[in-house]
Specification:
This protein is α/β, with parallel strands linked by helices and 279 residues long. The protein has eleven helices and seven strands. Helix 6 links the parallel strand 4 and strand 5. The chain is globular and about 55 Å long.
Length: 279
């Protein structure tokens, strides 16, 4: 999906869906937000930029870390999500602001001390150019930390629902080429390191995050409905014209095998925590 298509997508129904489920999504991804902040080690008084900030959960956490001297700025292409982020910041009196912009061409008005992102940097048409542009917003020796997904095969939370749906699709979906913009574009850590080095970053370090995530929902049925609307399988079955009730039944059966003692669905997940320094 091109940058233009991404912008249209996130300002349409996709953005509205993420707004409706923002609290549940933030809970799902909170372990990664915490890992990013622990790794980047923000200092009070710093200026922070959150790329692909969505509804602002990571931005707000960062803002409270650095205080109101310079605060945190979140950048995203989705107006529905940014509007929610602004409301959240106002309600919590957080030193955070938000701008609608494409990070591939965005330039901060003030030097940035730290750039962070929670799964917001895997969608650039030209990632080398985008990361070179982002580097230009940082002060010398400014640092960057972001989370990106490892391969689909390592992320059962995303893979299992797709495997449940595939037999019910009229035909198998076309596989995107390796590195194509999308959630798993940065699965190959050597590819990520090469992008950042070519973009002028130094001191690239990539560490694995391996653990389990808890899907939103208090029951198997609730979790299946959530994945049908927002998970990786949601868009696939919609575009393929599959029988949604059959897919949901299959998905419910798959998720039922991952129920914990509290009736919640927990599944393996794998991400990279990537750090680098501006030259």
């Amino acid at each position: 999906m091109s940058n233009t298509d991404q912008i249209a997508y996130w300002n349409g129904q996709a953005g509205e869906k993420w707004v409706r489920h923002a609290e549940r999504l933030d809970a799902l991804l909170e372990p990664f937000a915490n890992e990013i902040l622990e790794t980047v080690s923000l200092i009070e008084g710093e200026h922070v930029l959150d790329v692909g900030c969505g509804a602002g959960a990571l931005t707000l956490k960062a803002a409270f870390c650095v205080g109101d001297k310079q605060g945190a700025v979140g950048v995203d292409v989705s107006q529905p999500l940014l509007s929610l982020a602004e409301r959240r910041a106002s309600e919590r009196a957080a030193p955070a602001s938000f701008e609608k912009a494409d990070a591939a061409s965005y330039r901060s008005e003030r030097p940035v001390d730290a750039l962070i992102s929670r799964f917001g940097v895997m969608f650039f048409d030209d990632p080398v150019a985008a990361f070179a542009n982002l580097r230009n917003s940082l002060r010398p020796e400014g640092r960057m930390t972001f989370a990106c997904w490892q391969s689909l095969s390592e992320n059962a939370w995303a893979r299992a629902p797709l495997e449940a749906a595939l037999p019910l699709l009229p035909e198998p979906p076309a596989q995107p080429p390796p590195g194509a913009p999308g959630p798993f574009a940065f699965a190959d850590k050597d590819h990520v390191a090469s992008i950042l080095t070519d973009a002028g970053w130094k001191g690239v370090a990539i560490h694995p995050w391996l653990g389990r995530v808890t899907l939103p929902g208090d029951s198997v049925s609730d979790a299946a409905q959530f994945m049908m609307e927002l998970g990786p399988v949601a868009r696939l079955v919609s575009e393929a014209g599959a029988d949604l009730s059959q897919v949901e039944d299959a998905l419910t059966g798959t998720l039922a095998t991952h129920t914990d003692q509290n009736g919640r669905i927990t599944m393996p997940a794998a991400a990279w925590i990537v750090s680098a320094t501006a030259s």
